[in-house]
Design brief:
246 residues, BirA Bifunctional Protein, domain 2, nine-stranded mixed sheet, three-stranded mixed sheet, 6 helices, 35% helix, globular
C-alpha cells in the first residue's frame, strides 16, 4: 500500500463550513480509493467549534455579541470541548486511513502532538504534553496551551484535527473556557518568541509542519496542486453521491 500523504495548503482564510464540507468529501475519497490520506493546512475566519463533549455554558457570550463580532459557532462530531479557530493559526485536518498506519486512535493523537512539539522546538520553544489533557503546552510551572487537538474517526479514517496558535487574536479565547479547562491559559508562538509572523510566513510554516508530520507518521508528503485537489474533491463527491443513492 502507498505510504504517500497528500497535502493541500491554503494561504487565504477558508470559511469553516467550506473546510468541513471538504473533510467529509475527502473522507469518502480516502475510504473508496484506498489511499493513505489527505491533509489540509489552512486558516479560518473567527469561529468557535463545540465537540461531542462540549458544555454550552463554556461559551461565555451570547448570540448578539457573536453576531457583532462576526464569529460563527458550529457543533461538530469531533472529540473534545469548545475551541476557537481564527486568522493567525495553522489549522490542520489530516484525513488519514489508519489501515495504512496503525489502528490506534490514541497513538494517532500522540503522534500529532509529537509533530507539533517538534515543530515548536525548531523555534526553541520548550513544548510538551500535559496528561490527561490532549494538546500541546508550554511553561512547565504555569502551563498554557499553544495547540488544541480534536478528531473524529469513522471506519478507521480520521478527520478534524488540530489548531496551532502562531499569532492569533488571543482576546477571542476570553469569550470561551478553552477546551473546558478553567485553570490554564492559552498562548501563541508569537508571544513565546516575540516575533510577529505575517501571512506569508505562516503559509511557509505550513509546508515545514507538513514535512515534520510526514516524518513522525512515516509518510512521504506530496503537495497537491489546485487542479489535483479539485479532481480529488470531484471524485470524492461522486463516491459520496453514489453511497447516498445506495
Amino acid at each position: 500500500m502507498s505510504r504517500e500523504l497528500w497535502c493541500k495548503r491554503f494561504q487565504e482564510p477558508v470559511e469553516y463550513s467550506q473546510a468541513l464540507h471538504w473533510q467529509r468529501v475527502l473522507w469518502q475519497y480516502v475510504i473508496e480509493e484506498k489511499v493513505a490520506g489527505v491533509m489540509l493546512l489552512l486558516e479560518h475566519e473567527p469561529v468557535f467549534t463545540l465537540g461531542r463533549s462540549a458544555a454550552r455554558e463554556h461559551l461565555l457570550v451570547g448570540e448578539e455579541f457573536l453576531r457583532k463580532k462576526g464569529i460563527e459557532v458550529y457543533e461538530v462530531e469531533r472529540g473534545g470541548e469548545i475551541t476557537y479557530h481564527g486568522p493567525g493559526q495553522i489549522v490542520g485536518y489530516p484525513i488519514v486511513n489508519l489501515r495504512f498506519w496503525q489502528k490506534d486512535v490514541h497513538a494517532f493523537l500522540r503522534h500529532l502532538e509529537e509533530g507539533l512539539i517538534r515543530f515548536l522546538h525548531n523555534f526553541r520553544v520548550d513544548a510538551f504534553r500535559l496528561p490527561p489533557h490532549t494538546g500541546v503546552w508550554v511553561h512547565h510551572g504555569h502551563p498554557q496551551k499553544i495547540a488544541a487537538l480534536g478528531i473524529a474517526v469513522r471506519r478507521w479514517v480520521t478527520y478534524h484535527g488540530f489548531a496551532l496558535n502562531i499569532t492569533p487574536d488571543l482576546a477571542h479565547f476570553s469569550y470561551i473556557i478553552p477546551c473546558g479547562i478553567r485553570d490554564k491559559g492559552v498562548t501563541s508562538l508569537s508571544l513565546m518568541t516575540g516575533v510577529s509572523y505575517d501571512q506569508e510566513e505562516r503559509y511557509l510554516m505550513q509546508e515545514h509542519l507538513a514535512g515534520i508530520m510526514g516524518e513522525v507518521f512515516g509518510f512521504t508528503v506530496r503537495e497537491l496542486s489546485g487542479d489535483d485537489f479539485t479532481l480529488i474533491l470531484e471524485r470524492g463527491f461522486d463516491h459520496e453521491r453514489a453511497s447516498f443513492l445506495d
